[in-house]
Amino acid sequence: MRxxxxxxxxxILGWNAGSxxxxxxxxxxxxxxxLLLHFYSTLHKTDKAEETRLQMSHHSFQELQVVEEENIxxxxxxxRSPRAAKRRPRKKTTLIDEFLDENSQIRHxxxxxxxxxxxPTKDTGNDSxxxxxxxxxxxxxxxxxxxxxxxxMFDPLSRMYYWYGEYQDVPTFxxxxxxxxxxxxGVGCYSSKDLQTWKNEGIVLAAEEANETxxxxxxxxxxxxxxxxxxxxxxxxxxxxxxxxxYTKAAVGVAxxxxxxxxxxxxxxxxxxxxxxxDMTIFKDDDGMAYLVYSSEDNSELHIAPLTEDYLDxxxxxxxxxxxxxxxxxxLFKHGETYYMITSGCTGWAPNEALAHAAxxxxxxxxxxxxxxIGGSKMFKLTTFFAQGTFVLPLAGLPGSFIFMADRWNPADxxxxxxxxxxxxxGGPADWPLEYNFGFPSWSRVSIYWHRKxxxxxxxxxxxx
Length: 465
Ligand code: DGJ
Hints:
Glyco_hydro_beta-prop_sf; alpha+beta; 4-stranded antiparallel β-sheet; Tachylectin-2, Chain A; 7 helices
């Protein structure tokens, strides 16, 4: 008898056809099934709507996902006397050697001269709407923009973008330890409504000329300034890397202003949590919480810490991330509920490979998901397009689309370092999906596409906040 029952076919609902089953049980099963169906279709509908929105926004960014190749030829070696050639056989030069050689015959490829400058004072027809990574970039008065190692803040009050960065318009000199340096001049600020034409708002935090013990004395180092707005206090707060000429102070500095265009009052510097802090950034989350990320322990790891409510200090909580990975130049951003970060390796002013990292919680754990650079050439990919990241700006109205901002440093003349801005897109499976969730990689791919020339999707300004 038991055997016969076992062989009976079972329906999906687990109800044995032909078995005795009460009417209420059948009704409840049906109600349950309908509820499940409703729940599933609601979920699916939300997914679909989100998907369509994403597809539309990605569609307008689609032309930017074309892989553009570069074929830069290494020039033939210069002639040497037969005796010199015998004494020291020539090492094969690479494109990076050429990039680092200020007398290279192909210098103009990496640092094109003023004739190709992006100049809003001149009518360049259709070209005026384009970014040209690596070319000289002039402000609305026709003067080269000085905002290196910078970042952009969208000001909710004036509805303007403000670009802050290192103002380096002075000669470069070689410091005793052999490092190329400039005196501190201050933090430059530029404003824009379209992220294309930039008006010089002046030096919003200036160097200290006389007081040699001041953090901002011109003989020191001020790098990577970033500004965020605090809704609770109504203040604009600037954080920056403060150091002495030999990079042994390794601290963060904080300044504050009532206006995005300053002047900013310098408050103090400190080693956060008692640790060294060199390359750094700050990030403001959707809930108004802000965080400091800094390279520490001889740049071997990054530290992340929430800021206090007024954004003027770090809280005692700190997490060590990317331990032993030797990363610097952190640039943090968020897509959906996931946090992403682009970092560089540690090779002074010389370019190196960028890596993207992802985390479900900003305090970690953070996982490395691969090199985000696409296009150019293998060498472009290995050198972050001959540049180093500094900031990632979300494009309002285009979820998953960002501008990756980087510096192409020119250690022979730091003020002539160039800006490399490129489209960054989040989507698709990551290169190194270290973690899997039910067979699907946990992270989306972060892609930065090389373009000699590119523009924001037409009508982007209409989609803005
Ligand atoms: C790399 C850092 O990212 C830059 O901001 C600067 O500190 C240079 N090193 C100095 O060599």
